[in-house]
Write a structure and sequence with these properties.
Structural class of chain A: alpha/beta
Strand content of chain B: under 5%
Distance between the termini of chain A: 33 Å
Number of domains of chain A: 2
Order of helices and strands of chain A: EEEHEEHEHHHEHEHEEHHH
Largest sheet of chain A: 6 strands, mixed
Radius of gyration of chain B: 22 Å
Number of strands of chain A: 10
Number of helices of chain A: 10
CATH superfamily of the largest domain in chain A: P-loop containing nucleotide triphosphate hydrolases
Order of helices and strands of chain B: HHHHHHHHH
CATH topology of the largest domain in chain A: Rossmann fold
CATH class of the largest domain in chain A: Alpha Beta
Oligomer: heterodimer
Radius of gyration of chain A: 19 Å
Shape of chain B: elongated
Number of domains of chain B: 1
């Protein structure tokens, strides 16, 4: 479990996060949603320690991550996996080398054990046989899968995904969503996803946190999204007239 | 001086100290204990190949011409003087060892290797690859910069030695083919008045210059922010700053060691 306690962050005069309190639960896909500039990416980067908060704390279980030194954070970081918006794969390495990198760096596995682990992980994300390809030789969807494989190869307790569907077609986006959801349940990970993809919200949103101008505007699950009377949430999720009609229809039917 | 000019000057000075402080901190964290030596060794070997093998041709070319030009210029200066012609070989040898081999090699490498390092690290920063390493728990400054630094400190002195020999060969060719002096005279000059201390000076220079060009270039690339324009600027700054600092260090070493 990750607990966020009164997180504030300013850049110069601009306060991007104004005191966020929330909990990200294990075995669930926890979503951070909101319009561009709402502070989603800043919050996600604070969670993983890439940005320091101006005030507040991030708790991993009963450990206050924010108060740890860089060296002390390393222990928790080996329990983290992160999928970046642009996948952030190492260009000079093959798919296999990318996925093997955390094993090379943090384990004392033999070459055979590493090979077995990498192959199993690649098979799990649907990339069996892509070992020797370079990131530039595979599609955006495949790059995301490699990114996921690299993030989960050490079997982390925490998985963070920054816009996992950006730049993907709807079908591939759905497959990536399903993969993340399945892995979360299988490994009982605490998964935090930063997204503004409405399909993701409605398909895999176990717990949804809506940020609005740096404040936590609404929290709930995907079923509660439909029935919520929160106008900001409604305007954000059901932005188009078509989606509004769908929501009204769903409410009538229920 | 107007107040605004003063403010600008103060800001520039503050900025200079900011960069200096951040550079020192970066170098400090770069020298921290590696997480896994085997990973660092692999990366160091790759960098040695990139810096060393990848720069052989350019260093050889630059050195041959510098040696040749030095020989031709000195032959011109000595014309009609009472200084014996074999001195050309001696002058080419010593000037290559003391000054031209370390300085020109490192200036050329700042352009080739330094800009490449800045662009590589800057590209990694922009594509969030450095963030990815940090989230994994990798000490990014050490993992990305230390192998480059070690590789440069090992390979660049070797390139400088090669440059000194190639420069002498260039001088030899210019003298012999240009009929400035005879082969015997040139070889006699090469063998005359040899001071082993000059080799020490050459190696001190090559090690200091290697450190300067690698650390400044890595610093410029590591902290890139923004897009491709900023990456280009960082790459240019890496070359310009490295060149200035190499020449400044050259002067200081010359003062200290001669």
């Amino acid at each position: 479990m990750i607990r966020v306690e009164q997180i504030k962050r300013s850049f110069g005069d601009q306060q991007v996060l104004k005191g966020i309190d929330t909990i990200f639960e294990p075995g669930k896909t926890n979503l951070i949603i909101g319009r561009s500039g709402a502070g989603k990416t800043v919050l996600l980067k604070i969670l993983v320690g890439l940005i320091e908060p101006t005030e507040g704390n991030v708790w991993y279980g009963n450990i206050n991550f924010t108060q740890l030194t860089v060296k002390q954070r390393k222990a928790i970081r080996t329990e983290m996996g992160m999928l970046f918006q642009g996948s952030a794969l190492f260009d000079s390495m093959t798919v296999e080398e990318n996925v093997r990198f955390p094993l090379d760096m943090f384990t004392s596995f033999s070459a055979k054990e590493k090979k077995i682990t990498v192959d199993a992980t690649l098979e799990r994300v649907g990339l069996k046989g892509a070992n020797n390809k370079y990131p530039s030789e595979i599609s955006g969807g495949m790059q995301k899968r490699v990114g996921i494989a690299r993030a989960i190869v050490l079997k982390p307790k925490y998985l963070f995904c920054d816009e996992p569907n950006s730049g993907l077609d709807p079908t591939t986006a759905l497959l990536i969503d399903e993969l993340i959801k399945d892995l979360t349940v299988e490994n009982q990970m605490t998964t935090v996803i930063n997204t503004h993809d409405m399909n993701s919200v409605m398909e895999i949103g176990d717990k949804i946190n809506l940020l609005y101008f740096g404040e936590l505007e609404w929290t709930g699950n995907r079923k509660e999204v439909i029935s919520s009377e929160n106008e900001i949430l409604r305007d954000f999720i059901f932005a188009s007239p078509f989606l509004k009609r769908l929501r009204d229809q769903a409410l009538k039917n229920s | 001086m107007h107040l605004s000019e003063k403010a600008v000057l103060l800001f520039e000075i503050e900025l200079m100290f900011y960069h200096l402080g951040r550079y020192i901190i970066l170098i400090g964290s770069t020298l921290s204990k590696p997480e896994k030596l085997s990973m660092y060794w692999k990366e160091t070997a790759r960098q040695m190949n990139d810096i060393g093998v990848g720069s052989l041709l350019i260093v050889a070319l630059v050195s041959v011409f510098i040696g040749a030009v030095t020989a031709v210029q000195f032959a011109y200066q000595l014309e009609g003087s009472s200084i014996p012609p074999y001195y050309i070989g001696y002058i080419v040898r010593d000037i290559m060892i003391i000054e031209l081999a370390p300085t020109f090699t490192c200036l050329a490498l700042a352009g080739k290797v330094g800009s490449n390092m800045a662009a590589e690290l800057g590209g990694m920063r922009q594509k969030e690859q450095i963030d990815a390493l940090e989230v994994m728990g990798v000490d990014t400054s050490a993992y990305l910069i230390l192998p480059k630094l070690l590789a440069a400190l090992v390979v660049i002195p070797m390139l400088v030695v090669m440059s000194a020999f190639t420069g002498m060969a260039g001088g030899y060719m210019a003298c012999v083919f240009g009929k400035l002096v005879t082969v015997t005279e040139f070889m006699q000059g090469l063998r005359s008045f040899f001071e082993p201390y000059n080799i020490f000076m050459m190696q001190v220079k090559s090690i200091v210059f290697a450190f300067i060009l690698t650390s400044i270039s890595c610093y410029q690339g590591y902290y890139v922010k923004g897009g491709s324009i900023e990456l280009g600027k960082a790459s240019t700054a890496a070359v310009v700053l490295s060149n200035i600092m190499i020449l400044l260090a050259d002067y200081i070493i010359a003062l200290m060691l001669t």
